[in-house]
Design goal:
The chain is α/β, with parallel strands linked by helices and 270 residues long. It is built from 10 helices and 8 strands. It has an 8-stranded parallel β-sheet with strand order 6-5-4-3-2-1-8-7. Helix 1 crosses helix 2, helix 2 packs parallel to helix 3 and helix 3 runs parallel beside helix 4.
Length: 270
């Protein structure tokens, strides 16, 4: 039932994220937005301090910590909301958890550095393992798959096993199929159509489809601007809910919460 689906609100403290880059660089603006997301019904706040959009340039660890950690500490000082740190770097994850984060959302699935899995085990926090073909700067140049659903599932299952072998508790592991990360339109659609296969791996699944460019590929007129992708975002998100995903990573929290309430009410009536 949709009431159990968690909503993860996106809060990027970056100058170059694809949707809200630069909007929340000021610490007070970021904290105000965090309060808004909580008021709108976010179960988790996902704090990102390095953009992973296609073509994004890397950020050094010290800068990433300087952007993210004070905000995490400020949120934790006034709220018990779950906080996720969106980072590939173990050092950033360690600093974020020390400041109050409870989830490490890793687009590199603990492959960025050799010590990543050991750090995840040591921290004892939840860990999201995401599929990405390539790396952010080049991932959309020419993604290729034989069977995208099988390959993504094999990768995620393997990364979950590797994490557990390194000492990460099974119940701490989440999976993310990485919609838009090294995938063309047909790959994204195949994964959404067969999201049940990802869910069947037996771990909670985080789905991020909010405002992504595949929506524009399907609707070049309405989806040409970011604010015109809400309806497509909700349609894709609800497909994930129907398949059994555990959480949705979104920019538009209030609208997603409302969609889930309606979806859940219909499911109950049925």
């Amino acid at each position: 039932m949709s009431a159990a689906v968690k909503v993860m609100g996106i809060l990027n403290v970056t100058p170059d994220s694809f949707s809200d880059g630069g909007r929340y660089l000021d610490p007070l603006d970021a904290l105000i937005h965090a309060r808004r997301l909580i008021a709108e019904g976010a179960d988790i706040l996902d704090i990102g301090a390095e953009s992973t959009r296609p073509g994004a340039e890397p950020v050094d660890e010290a800068e990433e910590i300087a952007r993210a950690v004070p905000l995490i500490a400020a949120i934790r000082a006034e709220s018990d909301v779950a906080i996720s740190i969106d980072t590939m770097k173990p050092g950033v994850a360690r600093a974020a958890v020390a400041a109050g984060a409870t989830l490490w959302n890793d687009v590199a699935a603990l492959r960025f550095s050799p010590e990543a899995s050991a750090v995840a085990a040591d921290l004892g926090c939840g860990v999201v393992l995401m599929h990405m073909q390539g790396e952010p700067r080049t991932m959309q140049s020419a993604p290729q798959y034989g069977d995208v659903v099988a390959e993504v599932c094999d990768f995620l299952g393997g990364r979950a096993q590797a994490a557990m072998a390194a000492g990460v508790a099974r119940e701490k592991i989440w999976l993310d199929p990485g919609i838009g990360f090294g995938k063309r339109l047909e790959h994204n659609l195949a994964l959404l159509a067969h999201m049940d296969a990802v869910v069947a791996l037996g771990f909670p699944v985080l789905l991020g489809v909010s405002r992504k460019s595949f929506i524009t590929a399907l609707d070049p007129v309405g989806g040409a601007v970011l604010d015109g992708r809400l309806a497509g975002s909700l349609a894709a998100a609800l497909r994930g809910v129907d398949a059994g995903v555990a959480a949705l990573r979104v920019h538009d929290v209030a609208e997603t919460v409302q969609a889930l309430k309606v979806w859940g009410a219909v499911a109950q009536a049925r």
